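Hi again,

Forgot to attach this to my earlier email, sorry! This is the prediction with zinc ion bound. I've pasted everything inline since the attachment limit keeps bouncing my files.
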Amino acid sequence: MQQVTSNVFAETKCRGCNFGYLVTSEGVVMFDSPHKPSDAVALKAEMESKGPLRYIINTEPHADHWSGNAFFNAPVVAHEGVLNRIQSTDMAEHVRRVGLFGPDEPALLEGYEANAPMITFKNGMTLHVGNHTIEMIHMPGHTLYQAAVCIKEEGVAWTSDNIFRSVQTWIHEGNPDLWMTALESLRKLDEDIFVPGHGELCDKGYLNEQSALVQEWKEYVKGGIERGMTKDEAISNLTDLTDRYPMDVGQDGMAPVVMRMNVANLYDYLTGSWPSPGAPNFATYANWPGSR
Ligand SMILES: [Zn+2]
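Structure tokens for the complex follow:
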């Protein structure tokens, strides 16, 4: 766990998304939750020494950001799209997959209940906890339900997966144009310490790199469409963008799968059939052709 400021802590080296917490004068606020149950149990023990847990804030709907909510006893706050996604998740399949993360995990998953958001917002919301002000701002891009979460007194913003810092970017349900807008919105924030959804901490200096990458993906698929490729041909032939960055922790070997999912999604987007009803999400990528 990395100490980001005097009151903010973040973990960027565990399987799943980055997660962490803020210590206020009235207790602890947690940001996203560990994907791996044993990581959640360890985090819970650490936070208990810092004060009572008051809220959990989820930054987006992908399961790696909310799966660990279940191990904490506090109300969850998130965009309403996160609640909808959790409610439509096949929990038996979700638990089965998370149970594969290690030998100690299945026992921790017995009686699993997701702890879905109890408090939701559409455009934004501000929480006042002790001496801290936590502002949530809807920023669609990587999905339609992303939020940036700004801790005003600390100068820190949790960006969700609108930033993948120097690890493979997932665009499997992203809207590349909204994503560009989201990155410009992040640039306008007061906060300049960013905890991305995945990868190491960064600042506004990384925004151009993230923007160029999403743009490159979009142009790459657009090129295939202009050469007359069908969707299946694009998925089979457009395989060259896997080497820009390594995969994040615990995603070894998944680069070709992410590549196909990104191409499929961008193909639908660019041909006007987006969002496609059968679009894969993080919870179901195992069913995607060629995945492990
Ligand atoms: Zn995500």
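The longest strand covers residues 156-165. The chain has one domain: 2-208.

That should be everything now.

G.
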